[in-house]
Design goal:
This protein has one domain (4-125). 20% of the residues lie in helices and 24% in strands. The protein has helices at residues 21-29, 72-80, 103-113; strands at 12-15, 36-39, 55-57, 62-68, 82-84, 88-94, 119-125. β1 (12-15), α1 and β2 (36-39) form a beta-alpha-beta unit.
Length: 145
């Protein structure tokens, strides 16, 4: 259990190291004043993501999070476990799941989980494959919803 004597006053945290979801939750439990969190390396999560515990970060407004080789539904489960009043969300994804490019899925996720969001940045990285064809319009993610 976290005690007041062990709590940190850190408001801005950047982690440029491989991490697990449980390690991240542990760090965040000691930093209740955290406002901005920047993660530079994709995290290692266990495949049973349904068991990931939620965390409340009442002061967190800005997060940058990389995700590698996840399906969109897995990302949704993880991001919905973070209870925060995010104003800025930056997501870098390396995946072959084209659902990450579906503007309607993002709209639903943002409106339901982060209705106060002001800025959203998505960086989608895919190994080039001439066989892939994305059926959506290329400018779908440019406009507001």
């Amino acid at each position: 259990m976290v005690t007041n004597q062990r709590l940190s006053t850190i408001e801005y945290l950047a982690i440029d190291h491989c991490w697990t979801y449980n390690e991240l939750i542990s760090i965040m439990s000691y930093t209740p004043q955290l406002r901005r969190l920047y993660l530079f390396n994709a995290f290692d999560f266990h495949r049973n993501i349904q068991t990931i515990l939620p965390i409340t970060l009442s002061k967190l407004t800005d997060i940058s999070i990389p995700m590698n080789y996840l399906k969109f539904y897995e990302f949704e489960i993880i991001i919905r476990r973070i209870d925060a009043k995010l104003k800025v969300l930056r997501v870098t994804v390396q995946s072959q799941d084209l659902t990450f490019l579906n503007v309607y899925r993002w709209e639903k996720l943002i409106l339901e989980s982060f209705p106060q969001l002001e800025k959203f940045y998505l960086r989608y990285i895919e190994n080039f494959n001439r066989e892939y064809h994305y059926p959506g319009m290329p400018d779908q993610l440019i406009s507001s919803f």
